[in-house]
Write a sequence for this structure.
């Protein structure tokens, strides 16, 4: 039996980008506007282990966490009509990038270092990768990860825009793609 390409209208929508840029917030809004289920990979893993991501990292380590993250993302990428937010480190794995790029519409949410730095106090305690790091180490990590986010279908700059405005822009661009490519 021949495998048929998923029509663009049925493809999942995935949000990637550095931790704390707003993937969950934007993803949730886009899902509501498109009447789709929203899935936050970190929330799925936290619910599965019944503890916060920081504790999961401490208990099983980053390698085991990334493996479980990859399994969940792969499983979801075989479904349709979902909006998925992946953790900031998910795209470190080539297999995750490959399956996401082939089965989803991938949106990279980009935020400048200056704007991201303004959010650090809101997120630092819940991000295990940031624990014990100096501001210089975090900045280095921020710029290193920009390279892995370069694989995407659309880049959305988050600076100086309201979340509702960003979500509307994304929904409009998705609907335009549906019209153009269906």
């Amino acid at each position: 039996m021949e495998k048929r390409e998923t029509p663009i209208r049925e493809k999942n929508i995935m949000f990637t980008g550095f931790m704390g840029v707003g993937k969950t917030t934007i993803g949730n809004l886009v899902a509501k506007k498109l009447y789709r289920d929203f899935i936050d990979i970190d929330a799925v893993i936290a619910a599965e282990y019944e503890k916060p991501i920081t504790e999961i990292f401490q208990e099983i380590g980053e390698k085991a966490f990334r493996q479980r993250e990859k399994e969940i993302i792969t499983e979801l990428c075989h479904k349709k009509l979902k909006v998925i937010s992946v953790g900031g480190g998910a795209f470190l794995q080539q297999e995750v990038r490959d399956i996401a790029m082939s089965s989803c519409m991938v949106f990279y949410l980009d935020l400048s270092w200056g704007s991201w730095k303004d959010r650090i106090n809101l997120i630092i305690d819940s991000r295990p990768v940031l624990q014990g790091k100096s501001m210089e180490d975090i900045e280095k990590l921020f710029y290193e990860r920009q390279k892995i986010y370069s694989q995407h279908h659309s880049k959305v700059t988050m600076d100086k825009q309201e979340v509702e405005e960003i979500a509307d822009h994304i929904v409009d661009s998705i609907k335009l793609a549906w019209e153009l490519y269906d």
Notes: The mean pLDDT is 91. Residues 53-77 form the longest helix (25 residues).
